[in-house]
């Protein structure tokens, strides 16, 4: 396409935008004719939720739209407008049913009574209220002396960075989040510093204490629900009621029953990995090297 043709198309598209006639062409180009132009509806949803709904429903996302603009320069004029505000009827329906999708990243208080009523309990450990894990965020080499910078170095990841402890419950909702810690701080250490928070969250209500609970740890902690953690949290069972994989003894082997239980714990904890994967796919800052001041990390 010649430069003169491109400039001519831009002038035409500018005039169409001024007259409000461009929305249907944008929809057909981006949705590939999946729905009719008449079903276009404007939404006040945030851009992150709009992209999530489109991806959930298999619609073209940001990358696909960028490819379209390379072959059709006319679409570049309103790419940003489409991605931020223009949703199809199906996406609007998804918005009305957003509780069925994993769309929220804000913290929400929960109770076991509410979880049971909505069928949001773990399959293998029904007494577990939520699962907890730590997300490592790489960062640039800290300034200052070596003995100050090494506090941010993670021996596990071999990188400098910061850590955040998340607690997630079904249906993939974050119920608690810690302030950041340097990369060298162990996961179990972060948990023990906040054990009073977890004890308060896991405490049963007066009506829940009367319910039948025959799961692990019910005799030792009759007034508390349990928490799902990974193998790196050895020792927290002395503070809170926890469900965690059993570590292989030195020079020994795990029994078939213990291996099966470890597999069940890992199966229930996949919710944690799904949550981390989702926030990394939604926000670029969560998956790339952190570049700003440490004081701004918790606010981001």
Describe this protein's structure:
- This protein is α+β, with helices and mostly antiparallel strands.
- The chain has two domains: 3-98, no CATH class; 112-296, no CATH class.
- It contains 13 helices and nine strands.
- Strands 3, 4, 5, 6, 7, 8 and 9 form a seven-stranded mixed β-sheet that branches. It has a two-stranded antiparallel ribbon with strand order 1-2.
- Strand 4 and strand 5 (159-169) form a beta hairpin.
- The longest helix has 17 residues, at 3-19.
- The chain is globular, with a radius of gyration of 25 Å.
- It starts with a helix and ends in an 18-residue tail after the last helix.
- The model is unreliable at 16-47, 80-87 and 97-105 (pLDDT under 50).
Question: Would you kindly provide a brief summary of this structure?
Answer:
It comes from Aphanomyces astaci (Crayfish plague agent). The protein contains 13 helices and nine strands.
């Amino acid at each position: 396409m010649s430069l003169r043709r491109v400039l001519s198309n831009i002038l035409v598209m500018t005039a169409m935008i001024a007259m409000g006639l461009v929305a249907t062409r944008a929809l057909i180009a981006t949705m590939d004719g999946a729905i009719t132009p008449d079903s276009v509806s404007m939404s006040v949803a945030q851009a992150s939720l709009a992209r999530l709904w489109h991806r959930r429903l298999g619609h073209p996302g940001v990358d696909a739209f960028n490819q379209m603009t390379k072959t059709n320069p006319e679409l570049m004029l309103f790419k940003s407008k489409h991605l931020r505000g223009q949703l199809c009827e199906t996406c609007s329906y998804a918005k009305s049913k957003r509780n069925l999708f994993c769309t929220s990243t804000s913290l929400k208080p929960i109770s076991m009574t509410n979880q049971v009523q909505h069928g949001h309990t773990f399959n293998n450990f029904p007494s577990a209220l939520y699962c907890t894990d730590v997300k490592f965020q790489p960062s640039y080499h800290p300034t200052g002396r070596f003995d100050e910078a090494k506090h941010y170095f993670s021996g596990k990841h071999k990188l400098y960075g910061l850590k955040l402890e998340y607690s997630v419950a079904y249906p993939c909702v974050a119920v608690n989040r810690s302030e950041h810690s340097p990369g060298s701080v162990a996961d179990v250490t972060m948990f023990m510093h906040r054990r009073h928070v977890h004890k308060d969250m896991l405490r049963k209500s007066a009506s829940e204490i009367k319910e039948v609970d025959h799961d692990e740890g019910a005799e030792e902690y009759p007034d508390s629900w349990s928490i799902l953690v990974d193998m790196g949290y050895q020792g927290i069972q002395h503070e809170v009621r926890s469900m965690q994989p059993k570590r292989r003894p030195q020079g020994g082997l795990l029994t078939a029953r213990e291996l099966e239980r470890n597999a069940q714990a890992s199966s229930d904890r996949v919710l944690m990995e799904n949550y981390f994967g989702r926030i990394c796919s939604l926000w670029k800052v969560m998956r790339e090297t952190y570049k700003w001041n440490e004081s701004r990390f918790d606010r981001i």
